[in-house]
Amino acid sequence: MAVEVYLNFNGNCREAVAFYEDVFNTDKAEIMTFGETPQNPDYPLPEEAKDLVMHTRLIVFGSRIMFSDTFPGMPFSTGNNVTLAVVSDDEEQMRQAFDKLKEGGNVRMELQETFWSKCYGSLTDKFGVEWQFSHEVNE
C-alpha cells in the first residue's frame, strides 16, 4: 500500500505539469482529459471541462505525484489543493481504512467501481484532510 500526493489545479494543470517535468527532468506525462473519459448521457460534460486534465502523474525522485484540474464549479483553494491518495492492491484493507476515516468526516464518493479502478472513493476526514482511495493491482 502506498500513500501518494495528489495535486489539484484550477485550470492550469497542464502548465504546472510541464513546469515540474522541466524542474525534475522527468519523462513527459501522459494526460487524460475529462473529454476523453466515458461520457454519461444523463450528465453531459460541460464544454469548458473537455480539455481540462482529469488525471496525470509524474515520477519525482522515485515518488509518484498525481495531478488534475478541478471540475468546473467545484471548490478550489490555493494552498489547500493537496489530497493524499491511498493506492493498494488490498481491497479489504482499503475498505477498513476508508470506513474508519469517514467517521465524523464527509464522503465525496463512496467506494465503488469506476472505469479506472475496481474500487475507488474519496472523502474528507474529521480533521479536514482530503483522501482518495484507489485499488490498483501490482504488476
UniProtKB/TrEMBL annotation:
Leader sequence segment: none
Residues annotated as domain PhnB-like: 6-133
InterPro entries, per the entry: Glyas_Bleomycin-R_OHBP_Dase (IPR029068), PhnB-like (IPR028973)
Protein name stated in the entry: Glyoxalase
Protein source organism: Lysinibacillus boronitolerans JCM 21713 = 10a = NBRC 103108
Lineage of source species: Bacteria, Bacillati, Bacillota, Bacilli, Bacillales
